[in-house]
Amino acid sequence: MLEKIPSVVGEALSGLRAGIEKTAFHEVFPDVPASLTLSSSAFADGAAMPARFTADGAGVSPPLAWSGLPPGTESLVLLVEDAGSPTPHPLVHLIAWNLPAGLAGLGEGDVSKPATDPSLPLGRNSFLQTAWLPPDPPSGHGQHAYLFQIYALRQRLDLAENPGRGTLLKAMEGLVAAKGMLIGTYARA
Prior knowledge:
- By secondary structure, the chain is mainly β.
- It has one domain (about 1-185): PEBP-like (Phosphatidylethanolamine-binding Protein, Alpha-Beta Complex), CATH 3.90.280.
- Helices cover about 10% and strands about 25% of the residues.
- It has helices at about 5-10, 25-30, 165-170; strands spanning about 35-40, 45-50, 65, 75-80, 90-100, 105, 145-155, 175-185.
- It is globular and about 45 Å long.
């Protein structure tokens, strides 16, 4: 969708970015220990994501793996935010909540479409979809940093179906035992 925005508009907006400091990892849960390891077999931390995970490719969600959950972890939350979006707050690309503590990762494409598996509940991304929102930065806007964040919670969340970012983060307050992060980058020429 944003690939249709002229490059000159993207360049004009290049100084406008939400910022890493406004992501949940840094703004909402700054004091939570970053002791979880989050990785992908498709790209290294801080490296460019292959186009197949973006709107310029197949748009499938990337494979992810995590480890280092502290004892007493009851559930997990996976949140993906675009810190480079030309918006006041990071754009949400994925919310997966109440993931089972025994789950060690997600396979490629596992959250590309709205989940029907109750063990993989999804919240609403910034486009109000309950699925992976493929990176789609404006042409000429420069490199975006996509923060894949994993949170270990001391209990399951009691939320209505398909929560948005604000509802999710408020419910997580006081329950996060540990966190981890993986950054994937993407830029459209």
